């Protein structure tokens, strides 16, 4: 059976995005208890390394578009695969905090390299009628990656946290090979995004950008420290189960475009922040309860995947002629927030404790959601006229 162009690109994109986002980007938090135990690192150092992984993601975001302009949109996705594989291998063998940080940062950069270029690949190589389906398949790759990450964590519980990173390295190599075989080369096409209207674009995106600051900060706190919370009161199997549940439930994110058409993107974004707040609060208050943990994973899966997808939908609605630049701009703002949040959390944990940190983060997320629901300039108006590229 011959696959269509949309199916080939969609499957390759789902594989690469699944490894880069669902695995490499958040594996550090999953393996944090084992890293702390084996390398004997302090909370501030662990928090700084977590923040540095998102600095790598930010670097990938900033470098992907110039590389695509010179070498075509497939080039950044290939670089992302190499970074994911190389970084995972370095973490696997790391015996010092410096080597650990170098590998984690390199692996963390993979997500920045691969996210935005797939929009250009799909629009440039796939027939218009197949584009929504291809983008939907790519979007769900993150959920699949989280499920695989949960499976690796279950196996690692029998041996070592290093098995998780070894598995990510192998998965990154496999995804990169699939990507090269299934995704056609695209011609270099200089992006005109920076030539006009930078100040106007910033004004238009001020509310989605503010949402990005809150959303990415609270999400990274959850992913960085959730495993730590569970490890202190529940069996080891609870951690991989949490990640797998987030991935399975997160598949609902493929419906984001349709929901945003009905409710409006700002309202969907607000609901996502409220949902993530509930997930954080459950772990903060009752992280040693299996029922609370299961409820938290389900809520977070919905809020995380939908919250990510709605940002792409929202920016495309506001700036349809420069959707790529708008989306990337908000991702960059969110990446900066992702760098700062774990470092700040690592400094606060010794005094507050993990439970209080999660409750405080939940309050920030809740306040952000409430602010988006208040009357006033929301940046999105009413329901959109058409779905965005990732909805």
From TrEMBL:
Main location: membrane
Keyword Transmembrane helix among record annotations: yes
Gene3D superfamilies (UniProt xref): MFS general substrate transporter like domains
Compartmental location: Cell membrane
Protein's membrane topology: Multi-pass membrane protein
PROSITE patterns, per the entry: MFS
Residues in Major facilitator superfamily (MFS) profile domain copies: 10-380
Entries under InterPro entries matching the protein: MFS, MFS_dom, MFS_Efflux_Transporters, MFS_trans_sf
Keywords in alphabetical order: Cell membrane, Membrane, Transmembrane, Transmembrane helix
GO molecular function: transmembrane transporter activity
Superkingdom of the source species: Bacteria
One Pfam family it belongs to: MFS_1
Keyword Zinc: no
Name this polypeptide is given: Arabinose ABC transporter permease
């Amino acid at each position: 059976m011959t696959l269509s162009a949309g199916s080939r690109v969609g499957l390759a994109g789902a594989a690469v995005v699944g490894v880069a986002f669902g695995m490499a980007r958040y594996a550090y938090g999953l393996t944090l208890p084992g890293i702390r135990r084996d390398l004997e690192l302090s909370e501030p150092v662990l928090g700084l390394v977590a923040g540095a992984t998102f600095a790598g993601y930010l670097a990938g975001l900033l470098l992907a578009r110039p590389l695509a302009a010179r070498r075509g949109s497939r080039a950044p996705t290939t670089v992302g695969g190499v970074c994911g594989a190389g970084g995972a291998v370095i973490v696997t063998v790391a015996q010092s905090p410096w080597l650990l940080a170098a590998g984690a940062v390199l692996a963390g950069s993979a997500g920045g390299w691969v996210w935005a270029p797939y929009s250009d690949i799909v629009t440039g190589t796939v027939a218009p009628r197949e584009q929504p389906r291809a983008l939907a398949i790519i979007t769900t790759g993150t959920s699949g990656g989280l499920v695989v990450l949960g499976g690796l964590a279950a196996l690692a519980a029998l041996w070592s946290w290093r098995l998780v990173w070894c598995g990510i390295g192998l998965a990154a190599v496999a995804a990169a090979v699939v990507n090269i075989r299934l995704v056609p080369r695209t011609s270099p096409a200089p992006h005109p995004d920076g030539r006009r209207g930078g100040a106007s674009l910033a004004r238009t995106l001020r509310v989605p950008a503010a949402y990005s600051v809150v959303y990415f900060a609270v999400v990274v706190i959850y992913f960085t420290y959730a495993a730590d919370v569970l490890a202190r009161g529940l069996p080891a199997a609870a951690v991989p189960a949490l990640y797998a549940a987030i991935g399975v439930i997160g598949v609902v994110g493929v419906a984001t475009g349709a929901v945003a058409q009905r409710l409006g993107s700002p309202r969907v974004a607000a609901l996502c922040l409220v949902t993530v707040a509930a997930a954080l609060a459950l772990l903060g208050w009752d992280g040693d309860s299996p029922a609370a943990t299961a409820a938290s994973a389900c809520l977070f899966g919905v809020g995380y995947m939908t919250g990510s997808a709605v940002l792409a939908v929202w920016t495309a609605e506001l700036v349809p002629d420069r959707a790529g630049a708008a989306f990337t701009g908000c991702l960059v703002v969110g990446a900066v927030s992702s760098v700062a949040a774990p470092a700040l959390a690592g400094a606060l944990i010794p005094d507050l404790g993990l439970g209080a940190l999660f409750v405080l983060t939940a309050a920030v997320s809740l306040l952000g959601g409430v602010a988006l629901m208040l009357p006033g300039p929301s940046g999105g108006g009413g329901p959109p006229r058409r779905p965005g590229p990732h909805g």
